[in-house]
Every structure is written in structure tokens, then in C-alpha cells.
Design a protein that fits this description.
Helix content: 40-55%
Order of helices and strands: HEEHHEHHHEEHEEEEEEEEHHE
Strand order of the largest sheet: 1-2-6-7-10-13-14
Structural class: alpha+beta
Radius of gyration: 25 Å
Length: 314
């Protein structure tokens, strides 16, 4: 009798195991669903697309992603009066150090490196000039040479100093920081990493044209990115663009873009539309900003330094 009972028990266990295996195989065999979410953030539209097999997980991810963007905006924004970026200027001046968050420290450290390698064409101390030219374009009133000269005197990445213990020093009064050439790219990267942390590999994050993608979607050769005159299929890469398509001001028959050359203080003329492809969107965004200002020959040096590809749209 004991032998018979043992046989029945083994048989039942085998049936249960077989049933569990069938369920697992069935779940694995299901094709993941495509989910797309978008919200206006950071003055543009952020779009997140990914593939997973659960509505509940998709909603958890999208809530976490947009919450992450809001949090980063309270750090990076030069529009929000209470942002960390704007708060630190209250402490500027000689021999003054301010402890900053790891997120702000990291983006400023990368920015300083890019500033050095781009001959100052990328510079996060550009805030006084950004403010001046935003007002000029909004009012359609060209700034005076004196206004440009005064704002320009406050712009130099060497006025910003970072210490290894997450302290920041601003070495001149009147400095105003502007992360507009890198913040969206950095935010795209942070959101991409967050979505990936849930085990999602097929993902696209688009922050107003700054794009990072993971593995190709199911049954495709890559993520389809629409360009002005063509389409691009990509995977596991990042793309960013820069140009003067929409914002500019005309003075004495000359067109000045909203993209400002920190070295001269003026909006650039004959602006180039540039697309940069890189391993992450932080680098792609910043290099695109710099490459739209630099001469192509100088931009060429950035290709090997930052391992990027630079494309010009005539």
C-alpha cells in the first residue's frame, strides 16, 4: 500500500509540473504589447514607447517615468525660480562653495569637459546671453551692442569650478547657468535607464527630438526615426538635432538664430542643422549644440573624442 500511495503522489506531482510548464511556455510565447505614453514636459513633449506583456506594469512604468522627468526639471530648469540650478546663483561669488546634488554635479561635470573640447562653443554659463536673446526674439527687438557686451562678460565656463566632493564654486557675480543644450538629453537618458530597470529592452524615449532607443521592436529591423527628407532605422543608440528652423531674429537683413555663440555673444548666422548620433543622449544633445556653432573642421575633432557621428542637413 505504501508503494502505491507513493506512485500516485509522484504521478500527481508530474501532472502539476507539466501543467505549470505549459502555463509558463504559454506566457513566454505571448507577443509583448506596444505601449505609448506622452506628456508635455520641460517646454516640449516627452514620448515613451516600449513593449511589455502587462497593462499594470506599463502603467507603473509610465507613472515612474513622468515623475522622474518632473523631479529632474526641479533640478535642471533655468525657468523654474525654485529649481536647484537657479537657487545656487544666490551663493555665487569669490571663495563661495555650494554643495549640489549628484544629478546636477554629474551633468555639470560632463558639460565642463565638453566646453573644453569644443573651444567654449558649448558653455552652461551662457545664461545671461540666453536671457537677453530670448527677450529679443520674443519682442522682435535686436539687443544693443552694449547689452551683448555686458552679458558676454559674465559668460565663461572657467568661472564655474567643481570639486570632487560635490561642491560647486561660481567665481564671478552675475553668473546665470543654462543647461538648455544638454538637460533634455540627460533627462532622456535617465528615463531610458529607468524603463530599462524594469527589464524592458525594447524602448524609445523622445524628449522633443532628443531620442534614445534600445533593442529593435518585434518583427522589425529597428526603430523608425522620421527625418526631414528620409527615414532612419536604428537600435541601441541615441540621436539629437540642433538648428534654427523656428526661432530667429532679423537685423539689417541678417538672420540671427536663437542658438548663441558663447564666445561672441551673438546669435549665429548661417546656422547649420545638425544631427548627432552617440551612445547616449546626453553627449548627443551637447555635441549637436556645439556642432551647430563650430566650423565643420573643428567639429570633426569631436567625432573621435566623444565617439559620435555628425550629420549636416544643408
Amino acid at each position: 500500500m505504501c508503494i502505491k500511495i507513493k506512485s500516485i503522489s509522484i504521478y500527481r506531482s508530474a501532472l502539476i509540473l507539466k501543467f505549470c510548464l505549459i502555463i509558463c511556455i504559454s506566457i513566454v510565447a505571448q507577443s509583448p504589447e506596444r505601449y505609448e505614453f506622452s506628456q508635455p514636459k520641460m517646454g516640449t513633449k516627452f514620448k515613451i514607447i516600449f513593449y511589455c506583456q502587462s497593462d499594470s506594469l506599463a502603467n507603473i512604468i509610465q507613472d515612474a517615468a513622468f515623475e522622474k522627468i518632473d523631479k529632474l526639471n526641479t533640478i535642471y530648469s533655468d525657468y523654474e525660480v525654485t529649481s536647484e540650478l537657479n537657487k545656487i546663483v544666490k551663493f555665487q561669488g569669490q571663495d563661495t562653495s555650494v554643495h549640489i546634488s549628484s544629478s546636477l554635479y554629474d551633468i555639470l561635470k560632463i558639460s565642463q569637459h565638453i566646453s573644453k573640447e569644443t573651444y567654449g562653443a558649448f558653455d552652461v554659463t551662457i545664461g545671461p546671453l540666453s536671457k537677453l536673446w530670448r527677450r529679443a526674439i520674443r519682442r522682435n527687438e535686436f539687443p544693443t551692442d552694449q547689452e551683448i557686451k555686458e552679458a558676454r562678460s559674465l559668460v565663461d565656463f572657467n568661472y564655474l569650478r567643481l570639486r570632487d566632493d560635490s561642491f560647486l564654486e561660481l567665481l564671478k557675480n552675475g553668473i546665470r547657468l543654462d543647461l538648455g543644450g544638454i538637460a533634455k538629453g540627460a533627462t532622456v537618458d535617465e528615463v531610458f535607464e529607468l524603463v530599462s530597470s524594469y527589464g524592458i529592452t525594447q524602448v524609445l524615449v523622445d524628449g522633443g527630438g532628443d531620442i534614445r532607443v534600445g533593442a529593435k521592436p518585434p518583427d522589425s529591423k529597428g526603430w523608425e526615426i522620421q527625418l526631414p527628407n528620409s527615414k532612419l532605422l536604428v537600435q541601441n543608440t541615441a540621436l539629437a538635432t540642433s538648428g534654427d528652423t523656428y526661432k530667429y531674429i532679423i537685423q539689417d537683413g541678417r538672420r540671427y538664430a536663437h542658438i548663441i555663440d558663447p564666445r561672441t555673444g551673438y546669435g549665429i548666422q548661417n546656422a547649420k542643422n545638425v544631427m548627432v548620433q552617440a551612445a547616449n543622449c546626453t553627449i548627443a544633445d551637447a555635441i549637436a549644440s556645439a556642432a551647430s556653432i563650430l566650423e565643420p573642421l573643428k567639429s570633426k575633432n569631436l567625432i573621435s573624442i566623444f565617439d559620435v557621428k555628425i550629420f549636416y542637413d544643408p
